Amino acid sequence: MAIDSSKRILGYYSLRPAIWEVRDKYNKIVGTSFELELAMIGVVKELQGKKNVGMPLLLDAFEKTLAVSKIVGGIERLWVGPLNDRCKKFYKNAAFTKAANSQRMFIAVGEIADALAELDAFIAPDPL
Ligand SMILES: CC(C)(COP(=O)(O)OP(=O)(O)OC[C@H]1O[C@@H](n2cnc3c(N)ncnc32)[C@H](O)[C@@H]1OP(=O)(O)O)[C@@H](O)C(=O)NCCC(=O)NCCS
After folding, report:
1. What is the pTM of this model?
2. Atom in ligand 1 nearest the alpha carbon of residue 55
3. Residues 79-121: pLDDT tens digits?
4. Could you identify the atom of ligand 1 that is nearest to the CA of residue 38?
5. Do 69 and 51 meet the contact criterion of CB atoms below 8 Å apart?
6. Best mutation site among 12, 13, 14, 86 for ligand 1 pocket (most ligand atoms within 8 Å of CB)
7. Concatenated DSSP letters for 56-96?
8. Domains of the chain, earliest start first
């Protein structure tokens, strides 16, 4: 959750497990795979589109995803189900890719790690 100095809620998100069936070439379920999904993300109406709450919330979700993937094996992607075209653009700007044959979008855990490392280098450059 994002709050301001007077503890007013500015936005929130939640993550949940995404469990997929794995099928063989005969379409028989042969197992399950477990990944993570951004169940919801929202910014208070007056701050939507102002470019100061949604992306920091998403970056926080990236950090949590990376942390979970380090303890729980098998998590390779973070998934989202965009509600509309504006949401799709928001996720595309954050490097999500559209899945084949689906409206859902995902970002690989490796890409999340790279993005966060790049951001760290940008925020805290090496001392001279
Ligand atoms: C989607 C959302 C979380 C993005 O956070 P944000 O802080 O508004 O994001 P930004 O200010 O960085 O805006 C970036 C992009 O988000 C999208 N966006 C902005 N306002 C939006 C809105 N009301 N609804 C959906 N997407 C929106 C646009 O693509 C925008 O880019 P643009 O202004 O250049 O067209 C936020 O707008 C929101 O809460 N929307 C309503 C709830 C919602 O749609 N949640 C997502 C469900 S998939």
Report:
1. 0.88
2. 12
3. 999 999 999 999 999 999 999 889 999 999 999 999 999 888 7
4. 48
5. no
6. 86
7. HHHHHHHHHHHHHHHHSTT--EEEE--SSHHHHHHHHHTT-
8. 2-123 (3.40.630.30)
